[in-house]
Amino acid sequence: MNSYRQSLYGAIIRIVANLVMLAAIFPAMYYASRWHYLPAEATFCLIFFGITVPAWTLAWFLTKKVRRIFPAECQSMVELPGRGLQLVSWRVQEAGCDLLRCRR
User: Are strands 84-89 and 75-80 parallel, antiparallel or unpaired?
Assistant: First the structure.
């Protein structure tokens, strides 16, 4: 269930960030046509990237937070020496060989 929530919330975060990016075009175009003390391209970039860079940074942090709250089946929070609490991915290998055969 956690991997479903993780992928659902991650997808919602990405969709919202993309919508914010799409919506950032409108004020950027508006202010680029109104402000005359800067070139239009500079004004557009200033407004557009001033909105989208913090939005995608927030999306990145929220995605990281969702992964910590809802770890997938092959992930868990582990206390590592010197690094603190870390999200670790793990995978169970096939149990095809027993200890006596593996030591030879």
Answer: antiparallel
Largest CA distance in the chain: 80
Provide φ and ψ at 21, rounded to 5°. -65, -40
- pLDDT digit string, tens, across residues 33-68: 987 788 999 999 999 999 999 999 999 999 989 888
H or E element at residue 83: none
pTM metric for this prediction:
0.70
Angle at 48 between CA 47 and CA 52, to 5 degrees: 120
Virtual torsion, Cα 30, 36, 40, 43, nearest 10 deg: -70
